[in-house]
């Protein structure tokens, strides 16, 4: 079975019943097999869905209502516990099916390594793909303590596949010295600490190109999102991340897919993290799915 039987019917607010009629498909990637600090992000997708019930269906930022976007919540992919290689294969295969059907994929993580198989599938369909990466961490390691499949490696893997000049990272405030040296020497774009202003400067040069957007919730300061596996002080506010999503939505980019990862609800009894994440997902749906 492709989807988790424990999914129990929770869906993102106003999800349509039929995938066939949907333009966009939400799907969960509940994997945290390679995390380097605190596990728990495998529980993120369902908590985001549950938090979405408290959302208004209307966005005053974008003047759009969720009834204007045809989307289907497919549930969580059934990923074999503790087996990252097989899990990544399952994600990649599912993405290929979605793209063959002409769907807009919107993934919920899960650790950030789940973005890597998505990028591989995207690149086969869009060979001129660019990546917008919003995160606290560079994710440019080649391995972590000898493990090449790690949530600290997906952006380095993306650089090797699509070319570092097609990778744009924002909000980065943590990583090894070697990661920052690689970013400087390789030709990729990295904006340290800030997101909105450097993002707005870059968007015109990506106009018309297919772009995949990946957002790690830990780009937010822990004051706004304590529920994540590797929290990092000194981050941006929820307001700035919303403004950044809206800047992307209002640009001339061809957004072909997106994800939001690393929500680990067990570390946030206030639930502010999944509540914020659900709002970001709503704005992605309304802003990215045309």
Automatic annotation (TrEMBL):
Keywords: Hydrolase, Manganese, Metal-binding, Polyamine biosynthesis, Putrescine biosynthesis, Spermidine biosynthesis
Catalytic activity: agmatine + H2O = urea + putrescine
GO annotation (BP), single: putrescine biosynthetic process from arginine, via agmatine
CDD domains reported in the protein's UniProt record: Agmatinase-like_2
Broad class of enzyme this protein falls into: hydrolase
Positions contributing to Mn(2+) binding: 112, 135, 137, 139, 216, 218
EC number: 3.5.3.11
Cofactor(s), by name: Mn(2+)
Pathway, per record: Amine and polyamine biosynthesis; putrescine biosynthesis via agmatine pathway; putrescine from agmatine: step 1/1
Keyword S-adenosyl-L-methionine: no
Record's function text: Catalyzes the formation of putrescine from agmatine.
Family statement: Belongs to the arginase family. Agmatinase subfamily.
Protein name: Agmatinase
């Amino acid at each position: 079975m492709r989807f988790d039987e424990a999914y129990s019917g929770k869906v993102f607010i106003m999800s349509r019943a039929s995938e066939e009629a949907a333009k966009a498909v939400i799907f969960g990637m509940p994997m945290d097999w390679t995390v380097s600090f605190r596990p728990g992000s495998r529980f993120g997708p369902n908590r985001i869905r549950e938090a979405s019930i408290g959302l208004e269906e209307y966005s005053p930022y974008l003047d759009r209502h969720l009834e204007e976007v045809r989307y289907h919540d497919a549930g969580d992919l059934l990923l074999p516990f503790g087996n990252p290689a097989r899990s990544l294969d399952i994600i990649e295969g599912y993405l290929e099916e979605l793209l063959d059907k002409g769907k807009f994929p919107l993934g919920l993580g899960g650790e950030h390594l789940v973005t890597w198989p998505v990028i591989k599938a995207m690149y086969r369909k869009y060979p001129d793909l660019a990546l917008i990466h919003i995160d606290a961490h560079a994710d440019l390691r080649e391995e972590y303590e000898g493990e090449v499949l790690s949530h600290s490696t997906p952006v380095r893997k993306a650089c090797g596949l699509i070319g570092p000049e097609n990778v744009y990272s924002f909000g980065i405030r943590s990583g090894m010295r070697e990661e920052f040296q690689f970013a400087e020497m390789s030709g990729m774009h990295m904006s340290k600490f800030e997101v909105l202003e450097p993002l707005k400067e870059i968007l015109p040069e990506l106009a018309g190109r297919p772009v995949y957007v990946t957002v790690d919730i830990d780009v937010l300061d822990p004051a706004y999102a304590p529920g994540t596996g590797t929290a990092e002080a000194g981050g941006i506010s929820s307001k700035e991340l919303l403004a950044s999503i809206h800047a992307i939505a209002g640009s001339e980019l061809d957004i072909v897919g997106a994800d939001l990862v690393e929500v680990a609800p067990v570390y946030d009894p206030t639930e502010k993290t999944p509540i914020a994440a659900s709002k970001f997902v709503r704005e992605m749906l309304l802003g990215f799915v045309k």
